[in-house]
Here is the input.
Amino acid sequence: MASTSSPIRVAIVGYGNLGRGVEAAVAKNPDMQLKGIYTRRDPSQLQPLNADTPVHSMDVLLSHKGQVDVLILCGGSKDDLPRQAPELAAHFNLVDSFDTHARIPEHFANVDKAAQGGQCTALISAGWDPGMFSINRVLGEALLPDGATYTFWGKGLSQGHSDAIRRVEGVAGGVQYTIPVEEAVNKVRSGVRPELSTREKHQRECHVVLKDGADAEAVRKTIVEMPHYFDQYDTTVHFISAEELARDHSAMPHGGFVIRSGNTSAENKQVIEYRLQLDSNPEFTSSVLVAYARAVHRLAQAGQHGCKTVFDVAPGLLSPKSAEQLRAELL
Amino acid sequence: MASTSSPIRVAIVGYGNLGRGVEAAVAKNPDMQLKGIYTRRDPSQLQPLNADTPVHSMDVLLSHKGQVDVLILCGGSKDDLPRQAPELAAHFNLVDSFDTHARIPEHFANVDKAAQGGQCTALISAGWDPGMFSINRVLGEALLPDGATYTFWGKGLSQGHSDAIRRVEGVAGGVQYTIPVEEAVNKVRSGVRPELSTREKHQRECHVVLKDGADAEAVRKTIVEMPHYFDQYDTTVHFISAEELARDHSAMPHGGFVIRSGNTSAENKQVIEYRLQLDSNPEFTSSVLVAYARAVHRLAQAGQHGCKTVFDVAPGLLSPKSAEQLRAELL
Here is the structure.
């Protein structure tokens, strides 16, 4: 775990919000070097944050094997990562942010097979949920086995729910915020281990721009009654102008809490809380990916091949500092 | 990381508040078995929580080698652990809660030498600070390199400061609570990265029982002006009766916050907060020790000998669940 003298060479695969976040994050880590961005688009059309960052076509990626220590995959969990991660893990060490919780075991198996075959190290599902929140769920349970874990999300912009709103007839645009119910959070914090329904944990707040001539009440009803997305929640719908949407709702804040509440004896309750308040969800996720890229590089150097998750990574591996320095300064 | 079928056999060395907490914690972990308590006192005089727990003299510990997978050292950091941990690490896997931050590198070196020599695995400085707070300092820095870390303690009973009060002439008894200054915590949470003096971060609150005929004002002055312990803080002293002290101040609550605040870009601040609210400081520390005993057992089984810290332990190693189960249920 000693600090290496030559920088860790990373590359970005896919350049959306997450890719831009990774470019910004690598610049804040002096032990890392960004070798380039690989895109399916025309490389000449892509505008990296730093004009000096090399941009390549995905087609040449395989020929750059040996020039990159770790790939950071910045595609989507629906279509990109399930295909890309197993393909690339046969040739490169990599990290991804695969976040379809239900399909993680399947994704793990596919990536593991490829990485084992190629003697590479791949870490899937890094980010904050899955990711840092998952770590806190595991630690909470391990430290307080007689207890209950609660995850709250928000206040934050939910991409999936915003997309659902925008598909409603009569809607020109809109965003959805997920908001933890304060009463529920405080009850959990008090250590009483309440049973909470979906409705009791989160509220949903929509800001919607109507198309010309659309029926506001019909739109509102369609949204709040939408099965799975909204019907199990208390949802409020605010109608706003296109200007207000652009001015007040283009940031991507998010965050939330993981709270473990448990008893170490009949008399004594203990509460552990992990909280994130994020101005930018994609930039934070990117920062997590970059720190895990460092860990992946070290695991690969130690010959620990195959697929890993955040559960397999010791905290010290994420830091650029040496083990000695960490013990002396931060323990 | 698969769940083992035979229980992990642990033993407690030293039976004070921490030892009692470990006895309670092991009972909440079905994959562990408490083989016994080892004490320097007369074993027949010791009253374990569970009357069936075997109690032995320290003198026989070495002859029980092979019957115990991991020792949990529950002595003090001042006199017991610096001597015991290196001695025992030559023969047993073990975990301790050594918490003299400044002497950790020295303690690590001594324990590492012994553990390497004996092919044993020893983990030092487990607990919450050092321990869980340390992990969050490392993770915070790794995820948000452009940022600042703040540790606040309390509201909680400080053993060291309570002892200092009790040494003052005219004092028959007393306790000291460390209290984070709410204003400072809120400023840090807002993401502005303030520079905070010692006085601005914590207050100290003392509850003191006077000896007959003692001069209250002289006692108060001696306490609030005590170098290092109190002079750098705003300290309030309340005089109470011996009955009030026993009735209202015999619990050992503690806790605190580690907050990392940083920027991922010029526009976007991100705040990570880890918070503990503990009804019982020793019982929580004990629960952490027990979870790390599980990890130590697994590291030893994997042939990873020598001295370790919480920075070297992957989260999954702390859980009784298999890696498959963790990925499916908690990622």
